[in-house]
Amino acid sequence: MSIDAVSQQIKTATSVAVLTGAGVSAESGIPTFRDPGGLWQQYRPEDLATPQAFQRDPRLVWEWYDWRRQKIAQASPNPAHHTLAHMEGLVPEFLLITQNIDDLHGTAGSRRLIELHGCIWRVRCEREGTVHENREVPLKTLPPRCDCGSLLRPDVVWFGEPLAVETQAQAFAAAEVSDVFLTVGTSAIVHPAASLPIVAKDRGAFVAEINPAPTPITPYVDSYLQGPAGVILPQILSMVTQR
Ligand code: BJW
């Protein structure tokens, strides 16, 4: 099915939910995880994105996050982020569910937004569990510490950790009631996020995928639009806003 068909579905929808992944920020110069040259080709997730890795070597983990913070700080939202920010005003019920921690959707103006895997600009005290914003780039002290003396960690979700209960519930509730569900720039292999399009499809939503490469869910979607999000999403928006 074509861009036109997806646009028509959005035009008549009451409820639209969108799941985004690292591919949405690729055109802003932020590396993805699993593409050729992606982060997981250079680094092992076991060394950098698990609670065990942080316990073993908090400095190493923070050096990696500090490097990523520097890259993200220099990046700007691209047409995919801007289009999704615009789209939330066109549909009665809209929720943008991102796996990205870079806050580029927020910077682009998205407000009906949930960050499933946390945010790189927040830190959490290991002892007290308190969370606060920290945008210092680069960080002066590695690893950073809380006023209480305990280690601070990035407020992100690592492998083997549960997602925030309320955030996950909101995402699944939106998938269940959506008329249209878009999955954009994600390899759709990390759960529970990867279950969202399947849940939406099972509940009767029209599911469309935007990605230059097919993923494990491509055979199940109603429309696979092959290409970069920064090109395809603006084309969809332009058709949705056409009289
Ligand atoms: C473009 C493009 C362009 C390129 N335009 N597109 C069920 C089955 C099997 C395993 C599990 C399961 N349930 C849970 C698990 C275990 C695990 C998991 O899913 N493992 C899989 C690898 C198999 N899940 C977890 O551990 C999760 N926790 C959990 O389930 O807890 C349960 C629990 C309950 C109670 C107690 C304890 C536990 C947590 C997952 C956390 C993921 N964390 C990371 C890193 C942290 C954040 C960070 O530092 O950034 O999150 S991993 C990494 O993968 C990151 C991403 O958010 C996530 C998803 O990746 P994404 O976004 O899809 O990126 P890529 O690179 O994979 O794909 C990019 C795509 O873009 C590609 O398809 C390109 O083609 C495309 N693209 N350019 C559009 N221009």
User: How would you sum up the global shape?
Assistant: elongated
Number of helices: 11
Which CATH first-tier class of the largest domain would you pick? Alpha Beta
Radius of gyration: 18 Å
Proportion of helical residues: 25-40%
Query: Regions with pLDDT < 50 over 5+ consecutive residues?
Result: none
Distance between the termini: 21 Å
Q: Please state the second-level CATH architecture of the largest domain.
A: 3-Layer(aba) Sandwich
Number of strands: 9
Domains (count) = 2
Mean pLDDT: 97
- Ligand list: ligand BJW
Which sequence of SSEs, written as H and E, runs from N to C?
Answer: HEHHHHHHEHEEEEHEHEEH
Classified in CATH, the superfamily of the largest domain is TPP-binding domain
Order of strands across the main sheet: 3-2-1-7-8-9
Structural commentary:
This protein has 243 residues and is of the alpha/beta class. The chain has 2 domains: 3-30 and 77-117 and 163-240, TPP-binding domain (Rossmann fold, 3-Layer(aba) Sandwich); 45-74 and 125-156, SIR2/SIRT2 'Small Domain' (2-Layer Sandwich), CATH 3.30.1600. Helices cover 37% and strands 19% of the residues. The chain has helices spanning 3-12, 23-26, 39-42, 45-48, 51-56, 58-73, 79-87, 104-108, 165-177, 196-202, 229-241; strands at residues 15-20, 93-98, 113-115, 118-125, 131-133, 152-156, 180-184, 206-211, 223-226. The strands form 2 sheets. Strands 3-2-1-7-8-9 form a 6-stranded parallel β-sheet, sandwiched between helices. A 3-stranded antiparallel β-sheet has the order 5-4-6, with helices on one face. α8 (104-108) links the parallel β2 (93-98) and β3. It is elongated. The structure holds ligand BJW. Residues 21-23, 26-27, 32-35, 38, 49, 99, 101, 117, 156-162, 185-187, 189-192, 211-213, 215, 228-230 line the site of ligand BJW. Ligand BJW binds at residues 21-23, 26-27, 32-35, 38, 49, 99, 101, 117, 156-162, 185-187, 189-192, 211-213, 215, 228-230.
